[in-house]
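Below is one such record:
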Amino acid sequence: MTSNSWLIGIDIGTSRIKAGAIDTSGIEHFFVDAPTPWIQIPTGAELDPSRLLDTVLGVLSEITDRLPSVSDGDVVALGITGIAETVVYLDSKDNPIMRSIAWHDSRGEDEAREMADVFGGLFSEKTGLPPSRLCTLAKWRWLCGHLDQPSSVAKILGIAEWIAYRLGGGQVAELSLASRSGMLDVAAGEWWEEALEWGDLSLRVMPELVTAGTAIGNFDGARYAEYGLNRLNGAILTIGGHDHSCGAVGAGVIDNNEVFDSCGTAEALIRATCKMPDGDAIGVALAGHVTVGRHALPGRFVLLGAQRAGLVLGRILKLIGYGTEEIGSDRMSLLERDALDGLDDIGELKILNAESNLASITGIGWDATPVHIWRAAVSTVTNRMYELLNTISEIGGPIDRIAVSGGWSRSLALRAAKEKVAGSAITVDYLDVEEPGIRGAALFAGCAASVFDDISNAPRPASVSSSARDNLSKR
């Protein structure tokens, strides 16, 4: 392996499709992105698999153009991570039959209720999920009742696996992505045949299950010569898993006593655990809005709690006259400084239904200012984070460390609030990693290519224990 070898990661997100390169020492170098090409419809959104592939190829072309000029074959491997639940339905000739329904699309609500009636508590015990319309199985049942095409489905692939297949890989399903479908027996790591039977599906349409970092083929450069991707020809392909747990790996958060706090538009708390919780524990987890599934880390499970913290904070910032692009700026540091001075006491000011379409602010006193509203917003999302963290601790045991990454980790008021709820028993670190999902996918690619003998031995990013108040005092 040469010192100028590259590993490429692709992250297929809800908003953006991103790609980046790291070297074999784990250092991030280049990133490019493009909008995810959703087609908006009244119930939500759909995705044309061919347009998705074109977008990915365009991003790959741009990232390879930016790499330093060295010999062909220097890109040794490529890993793909992304959102779950959204899938591609293929016919007997491996062509997409229809558009893919977005995971957040509203279709499948009635089918989810039917799913709950049919399986009762067994559904959550087997899948680690609530029976909701987010599950692929609910969307599939909707299709069966509304369209003719499902009868001709020969294979079902997640969108990350679909892209890998079109680039030259085999038809597979990675476990952490499959565990979000509602069709996987999570503890066994096998397709749940009872759920497939209810969905009028057979095992023949379900792809082979693999772990993240499994080599599944090689990039077919000849197929995409017009994109100028000859430098990727022969690169080993792999799936990096569900974007949240892949991001935890990219952030180096792989020990069972630590939590990765991906603090972006959506805030996700991800914790690895060695065993599947039992039925009672799963019930406690789901009641606390924490799901259970397979981690991208081979052989491990994941506890995942999430809230739309970034959206909540962004709407409040806009309301008080700031933009999200100002996070970390000198102008916003003045707001943050004033917010920190009274962060422990927000009085009666509260933000209700913060994640709904119609949030409300109550308890506005005569002396209320934008600073008070910002304190209340930070307090609201931090309290919700603390509730999720408590549930994760109840299921998985004590937590020693929270490692934070993402755009909103630049907010010093939010940092201070996180440090306060963590207390002295938990270390809060801020990671020196720009794109954890991309980095994680690239590291798994390195495992597939034997650059690293095991994902636990892959290089971890640097982290800095940093007090929010100390950061402000330096400004």
Observations:
- The chain has two domains: 6-244, 252-432.
